[in-house]
Amino acid sequence: MSYSELNSPERTLSDELKELIDNRNILTEKTKHKVINDLQREKIEKEEKRLNMQMKTMNELVESERKYLCQLETLLRFFRTPLEDTIKNTAASKVFENIETIRNLNKVLLQRISTDLTPNKIAEAFIELAPFFKLYTNYTNDYKRTILAIQEVRRQNQRIDDNVARQESRPEVANRINSLLIVPVQRVPRYRLLLRELAEHTLAESNEKTLVEHALRRIEEVTEYINSQVNQQDNVQRLLQIQMSLADGKPSIILPGRTLIKEGVLMKVADNEDKGKPRHFVLMSDALMCCKMKSGSLHCSAFMPLRKCHAEMVLGRGLFSLTGPGCNLLLYSKDDRVVEEWVDAICQAKLEYEKRISTLQKKVSSRPSLHSCITPLNESFVGIEYASRKRKLDNQENCLPNVKRFLRMTDSSKGSTKQTCSENGNPLRAVMESNRQEGAQGGYYSLFKNFLTRIGNWL
């Protein structure tokens, strides 16, 4: 292989490597030097590209934060005055207070990340301030109601509508109020995207990578928390709307801990009729409600506890049976997927409900019963508490003889406890003797006896 062939413009590094492989990887010094230089150049270019992308992401984070703060300042400066008094008595009354709180928080964040533009400092700032981003929850929950309240105010008051429109057309604003109000809702998810991009462009297996990933996890936790709170708020609002749409407000479906899982219209197979009847179904975390639709309202025709419901497919697809207390329905939909989704949702909700109930029963059954605490067969008399004298015992017939028998045993044991213990080796007598000796010093024995006496009289 000649020097001119290696340096010819038509030949590339790939061609040379192929020819070298064909020749059993016999490399000349010239070729070896060229390969090494090319590989090093590629590595350097890759590292420079990574650093450029990393710096670009950090600059985007800082610049977008500055722009975001300017948008918050615009809302407070140009729209608080014309709107604050008019929405004072509405659901959106605290919107500008929330914006001011968010602005103060983000001022601190901008100061922290712009002082020293490095992945470590940015990650540390987000890790430290991540818990405070939960302040966005209140604003996010009120966002939809705020938009509706402002639209209603502008519709009813022409002067306010003109004032808001005039502020929107100002050169320093150049935005509609709705476009500005949604910016805080989008900000925390934006942090997650930027931190994820920063982590991708940070050197692997380094302290910077560890810190950035930690900050990303913290922001993801905050995002999930805000989303869960918003979903819960929307769930409650929808349940309230369904409650208001029920005829005469019956039955009451608003209960602590009850959540809406699914709702929709299914067709009921009617007896002696060729046409199905539409029914509105509401699946909740502990019950299933079937309603007739009349004159824009819902009339409940069946309300079934979820643990007594059973749903299964019939004839393959498109039809399923729903059985419950006093209810046996055949339901279908034009879309087979809707039927499958309803069957899966009912079965899954039932499993989760039974799981919650079984967990609750285990927690209750793990508590020591009152009967086992005061019977003389139990050697531990510590921790007996009564929340109320009106509390009923589960088994009064068995408990009362045990209390009286225990009192008789304690009365007959005076002066002869040591002898009985030595003769019969009864561990119960040893316990009573120990209690009597301790009571001689602190008086607990007599107090405990009087307490059991009162319990016996009450029973």
Layout of helices and strands:
Elements: H1 3-6, H2 13-22, H3 29-84, H4 95-115, H5 119-129, H6 136-156, H7 158-168, H8 177-181, H9 183-200, H10 207-245, E1 260-268, E2 277-284, E3 287-294, E4 297-305, E5 310-313, E6 319-324, E7 327-332, H11 336-365, H12 370-374, H13 396-412, H14 417-424, H15 427-442, H16 444-458
Antiparallel strand pairs: 1-2, 1-7, 2-3, 3-4, 5-6, 6-7
What features would you describe in this structure?
With 459 residues, the protein is α+β, with helices and mostly antiparallel strands. Strand 6 and strand 7 (327-332) form a beta hairpin. It contains 16 helices and 7 strands. The model is unreliable at 1-10, 369-410, 412-432 and 438-442 (pLDDT under 50). The chain starts with a helix and ends with a helix. Strands 4-3-2-1-7-6-5 form a 7-stranded antiparallel beta sheet. 17% of the residues are buried. Helix 3 packs antiparallel against helix 9, helix 4 runs antiparallel to helix 5 and helix 5 packs parallel to helix 10 (207-245). It is 63% helix and 11% strand. It is extended. It has helices at 3-6, 13-22, 29-84, 95-115, 119-129, 136-156, 158-168, 177-181, 183-200, 207-245, 336-365, 370-374, 396-412, 417-424, 427-442, 444-458, and strands at residues 260-268, 277-284, 287-294, 297-305, 310-313, 319-324, 327-332. The longest helix has 56 residues, at 29-84.
